[in-house]
Design a protein that fits this description.
By secondary structure, this protein is mainly alpha-helical. It is built from 5 helices and no strands.
Length: 99
C-alpha cells in the first residue's frame, strides 16, 4: 500500500488507497484491512476499518465427458484410481489406503 501512496500513520490515507484500487478483488482488500488493523493496534493508531464483502465464485466442476477423457489418457494404475474416485466419491487418501 505504501507503493500506492498510502501513509501508514494516516488511516484515511490507507482507506483512500483501498478505495481507488480497481484491480484488487474484495478478498484482497479484506486481507489488507486485516493486516492494517494489526499494524494499527501495534502502533496505537485508531481507525474505523471499511467493510468489504467477498464475492464467492462457484467452483469449477468438469463435465463427465471431461473426466472420462482424463481417465482414458492416463496409465493403467492412475486410470484405475481415477475411475474409483469418480465412481465412489472417495478421497484420494481413502483410495490409496485400500488393500
Amino acid at each position: 500500500m505504501v507503493e500506492d501512496g498510502a501513509e501508514l500513520s494516516n488511516p484515511e490515507s490507507v482507506k483512500a488507497v483501498l478505495a481507488f484500487q480497481k484491480e484488487w478483488k474484495n478478498s484482497t482488500k479484506l486481507l489488507m484491512v486485516a493486516s492494517y488493523q494489526k499494524y494499527a493496534i501495534l502502533n496505537g493508531i485508531r481507525w474505523n476499518p471499511p467493510k468489504y464483502e467477498v464475492n464467492r465464485k462457484l467452483p469449477f466442476i468438469p463435465l463427465e465427458r471431461e473426466t472420462d477423457e482424463l481417465v482414458a489418457c492416463c496409465g493403467k494404475k492412475m486410470s484405475a484410481i481415477l475411475q474409483l474416485l469418480k465412481e465412489t466419491g472417495m478421497r484420494i487418501g481413502e483410495a490409496l489406503g485400500l488393500e
